[in-house]
Amino acid sequence: QKEVEQDPGPLSVPEGAIVSLNCTYSNSAFQYFMWYRQYSRKGPELLMYTYSSGNKEDGRFTAQVDKSSKYISLFIRDSQPSDSATYLCAMSDLYGGATNKLIFGTGTLLAVQP
Amino acid sequence: EAQVTQNPRYLITVTGKKLTVTCSQNMNHEYMSWYRQDPGLGLRQIYYSMNVEVTDKGDVPEGYKVSRKEKRNFPLILESPSPNQTSLYFCASSIKRTSEQFFGPGTRLTVL
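ok -> structure tokens follow
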């Protein structure tokens, strides 16, 4: 079993829709949770990060962490064609731990149709 | 502009021919890592470095070497590439262990 599971999609939604992206994980030691966005032929860029359980909001993006269920989510409101990308969840036990390593999900490909 | 650069961006080579992928960051970051990204496997750490002359193995170090002689540079060396090293490679850096990792644009490597 992988430490982090993520539905690869693809997920296709119309412009303006609310998008829900999810990851589950098995390591209860994870404390830091991140969402990266990766455009085609580009490197990942950090969108959101949260510590432990709870919600965090930044503009149209909301990240949720439920440690009791080992489940994290990213919500995108009023989705735009420019949101079309692969979304990667990532997590660590101490924001990288001793190795500065992040454990990544495989990514969900999102397409927002105009 | 603050950035991580990698060269080359694309490389096709043959089995056994030594190659080096360069990585450079202009943000004075201490921490640097190399990841490979494969379909269905996601991003996996190959090597990391906490500072000049300090490097250590990540999850998939076999077949790779790194060096950190200067703070800004962290080259990835494949002494004898094999087809199973065909992948998309990313270099990343962060100012300290507990901060955001910035990724380079990636190097797509094909080993025939």
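The interface with chain A takes residues 4, 31, 33, 39-45, 48, 50, 56, 58-59, 90, 92, 94, 97-101, 103-106 of chain B (CB under 8 Å).
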